[in-house]
């Protein structure tokens, strides 16, 4: 079934109490399109169903998705391992922003599987590889990256 595109920034409320309950998160519903809207809700539900997940989250960009993913699983004192050949925005997030938040990022060459595995320890929360690196178009160490991540119980972000 085709879903309409809800092109709106705000939604109407039944009354002031209904609005207050929505903003206090006492009841579920649409408040403002930046937070959620019916079109995004359907997208999130359908992607979750396709991927076998329990929920999904639609965000505005790939960088938002990467930032959300890493900041959800890692905190100060944790680390992630990443290939060094990355999109510039991802590299800046990993090399500059995350370290300021106390999340260490350890870089390895994408072709050095042993080097990737050697950087994984008990505080590693993810092994990050871009499926197709931008701007080089190079690939990722798919099976080997997952092997190293799973052997330590870390996630495989790709």
Explain what this protein looks like in three dimensions.
- Strand 1 (79-83), helix 4 and strand 2 form a beta-alpha-beta unit.
- The protein has six helices and four strands.
- It has two domains: 1-58, no CATH class; 62-157, Aspartate Aminotransferase, domain 2 (3-Layer(aba) Sandwich), CATH 3.40.640.
- It has 158 residues and is of the alpha/beta class.
- It has helices at residues 16-23, 38-51, 62-73, 88-100, 113-118, 142-152; strands at residues 79-83, 104-108, 124-128, 155-157.
- A four-stranded parallel beta sheet has the order 2-1-3-4.
- The mean pLDDT is 86.
- Helix 3 runs parallel beside helix 4 (88-100).
- The longest helix is centred in the N-terminal third of the chain and has 14 residues, at 38-51.
- The first-level CATH class of the largest domain is given as Alpha Beta
Total strands: the figure is: 4
Named at the architecture level, the CATH assignment of the largest domain is: 3-Layer(aba) Sandwich
Give the fraction of residues assigned to helices: 40-55%
Pfam families: Cys_Met_Meta_PP
Family: Belongs to the trans-sulfuration enzymes family.
GO molecular function: cysteine synthase activity; O-acetylhomoserine aminocarboxypropyltransferase activity; pyridoxal phosphate binding
GO biological process, one term: transsulfuration
Observed structural traits:
158 residues; alpha/beta; Aspartate Aminotransferase, domain 2; 2 domains; four-stranded parallel β-sheet; 6 helices; 4 strands; 41% helix; elongated
């Amino acid at each position: 079934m085709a879903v309409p595109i809800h092109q709106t920034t705000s939604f109407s409320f039944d009354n002031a109490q209904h609005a207050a309950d929505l903003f206090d998160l006492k009841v579920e519903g649409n408040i403002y399109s930046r937070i959620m809207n019916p079109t995004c809700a359907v997208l999130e539900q359908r992607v979750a169903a396709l991927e076998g997940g329990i929920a999904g989250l639609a965000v505005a960009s790939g960088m938002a998705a990467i930032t959300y993913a890493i900041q959800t699983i890692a905190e100060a004192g944790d680390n992630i391992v990443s290939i060094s050949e990355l999109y510039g925005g991802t590299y800046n997030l990993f090399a500059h922003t995350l370290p300021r938040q106390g999340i260490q990022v350890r870089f390895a060459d994408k072709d050095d599987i042993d080097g990737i595995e050697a950087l994984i320890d008990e505080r590693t929360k993810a092994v990050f590889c871009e499926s197709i690196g931008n701007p080089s178009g190079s690939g990722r160490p798919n099976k080997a990256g997952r092997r190293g991540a799973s052997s330590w119980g870390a996630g495989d972000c790709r």
